[in-house]
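Suppose you are handed a protein chain with no further information: no name, no annotation, nothing but its sequence. What can you learn? This example shows the usual starting point.
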Amino acid sequence: MATIHIGLTYPDLLAHIAPGDLAERAERWGFHTFWVTDHALTPRLDPLVLLAAVSQRTRRLRLGTGVLAVPYRSPYLTAKAAASVDVLSGGRCTLGLGIGDLFHEFAALELDRRVRGRLADERLEIIRRLLTEDRVSFAGRFHRVTDLRLLPRPVQQPHIPLWLGGHWAGGFVEPVLRRVARFADVFFPTWTPVEGYQAAQAEIRRHAQAQGRDPDTIGWGVQIWTYVGDSTAQGRRMGSRAMQERFGIAQVDFAQSTALGAAADCIATLERYVALGITEFNLSAVCPAPEMAAQYGRIAEEILPHFAN
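A reasonable first move is to predict its three-dimensional structure. Written in structure tokens, the prediction is:
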């Protein structure tokens, strides 16, 4: 049976717990990855700067961006920062990437969101080549580089793992799935129900075969909003309330990338994803920020042992 890896997210928690403090606890509790998000206009620390700091407080915990918006930064600077985190951590960086969907941030950064997919494709190719090749030349619509070299080299070989996200909205658009088939080591979406994930897997495999890539080289991950309560009713009530307050949604769909309820309910939900061959989980606690560290402790105590066995 494949090993299941479970990580957690560090969102806006500076007023309640420092990232290094939560990362130390996460490592002690047995989490696999410490994930950070990328929202340029929110009061969050820069994700790769944050991970560089956390790398000095941990020894085994993997450090991931879940996910970094590719259009926000030049491909060289993204690869350079990721390689720097990889060196500082001794080879523990996972580079989760996406094309971004917060259009007010594109406006603030003076970016044309209408070309973000085509721009991201070029940047993904350059990033991957910079992490794997000694010297890179590239000529495209948005980028022209000649004999570009990334130093220092990342510790991980052949390259830092590249995970590609996607936001479920009743389905995934074809360019997202083609992009995953072309570039991703792991598919890593959010808000995705089991049935939707299964359909996406089939399409990604089809695109990979069409591109001449072995579909079995693509791994499967997912981000799940999680709340462990004392009972099914209490857990769903508290988790739903937190999601409604955080995201402004009127009704929570318990089948759509959520694990809310008692620990047994959450485990049963995760097992449905495991049955699809998913081995990489980001359990993002959904609760008020002051309670988040305690919620992660509860996830560690009541959910992690099941999958460790």
